[in-house]
Design goal:
This protein has 242 residues and is an alpha/beta fold. It has helices at 17-28, 33-42, 60-73, 91-94, 109-117, 157-161, 180-196, 206-220, 224-236, and strands spanning 50-55, 77-81, 102-106, 122-126, 133-134, 144-148, 165-168. The chain has two domains: 17-43 and 205-236, no CATH class; 48-196, Alpha/beta knot (3-Layer(aba) Sandwich), CATH 3.40.1280.10. The protein is 41% helix and 13% strand. Helix 1 packs parallel to helix 8 and helix 3 packs parallel to helix 7.
């Protein structure tokens, strides 16, 4: 979660699946049945098979709208590259999605690409070029990172040159491009719908699901990190990893 990813990103490292399940069962006693049911239902539709990279987006409401779309389409991870522009979620646009979607702030596009490739992602830059693959034809059998650029100038040449592939959304009007948040929403809809109808193993593993629910629990429990620390000490008689 955005409030947790950095300071608490290793909170549950070293814990076995059964330990995480035990910890979540203890944490789940502290919030409502409705919220527990919601977590159980929504986590089944979360994916990391597709993720999003935003390169130096200038307007926070556009980046926040992308977060909101990612949440709606079940895409769990967003990587925000801050070359010149600092990103802070706009609460009126994000509508709380920043509590449920993981976003990672990165210092450079190359570092972001390297981190994603180390996890098996193919890097696909979104461009309006004539020879690019249409979004509906993009091969998504491999985990795919979609890269979107800033509002005025698009992706930097560095982001383009280091990508593994390129994709475009069909357009039939005078305007040469969609707004970035619209482009992301259209792309995610096209890809996630096709992904869910495929034989791709796109869902989170059982351990990833329970880990994510632990982070979600920290969002709904008052003073969540401190409470989780207390539960960890109570259940395992030792502090959490920090």
């Amino acid at each position: 979660m955005p409030e947790i990813n950095f300071e608490y990103q290793h909170f549950f490292d070293g814990r076995t699946l059964s330990e995480k399940q035990k910890l979540y069962a203890a944490a789940a006693e502290l919030f409502s049945d409705n919220k527990r049911d919601l977590f159980d239902r929504l986590v089944l539709n979360r994916t990391r098979h597709i993720c999003v990279v935003l390169e130096d987006v200038f307007q926070s409401h556009n980046a926040s709208a992308v977060l909101r779309s990612c949440d709606c389409f079940g895409v769990q991870d967003v990587h925000v590259v801050e070359n010149r522009n600092h990103y802070c979620p706009n609460p009126d646009v994000a509508m709380g999605s920043n509590k449920w979607v993981d976003y990672y702030k990165r210092p450079s596009i190359v570092e972001t690409y390297d981190a994603l490739r180390s996890k098996g992602y193919r890097i696909v830059a979104t461009l309006p070029h004539e020879n690019d693959t249409m979004i509906g034809d993009l091969d998504i059998t491999q985990p795919t990172a979609l890269v979107f650029g800033t509002e005025l100038t698009g992706l930097t040449q560095e982001a383009i040159d280091h990508a593994d592939g390129y994709v475009k959304i069909p357009m039939y009007g005078f305007t040469e491009s969609f707004n970035i948040s619209v482009s992301a929403a259209l792309s995610l809809y096209a890809l996630t719908e096709r992904m869910r109808r495929s034989n791709i193993q796109w869902q989170l593993t059982e351990e990833e699901q329970v880990t994510l629910k632990l982070y979600w629990a920290m969002q709904v429990i008052h003073d969540g990190p401190a409470v989780m620390q207390h539960l960890m000490q109570r259940e395992f008689s030792q502090p959490v990893n920090r």
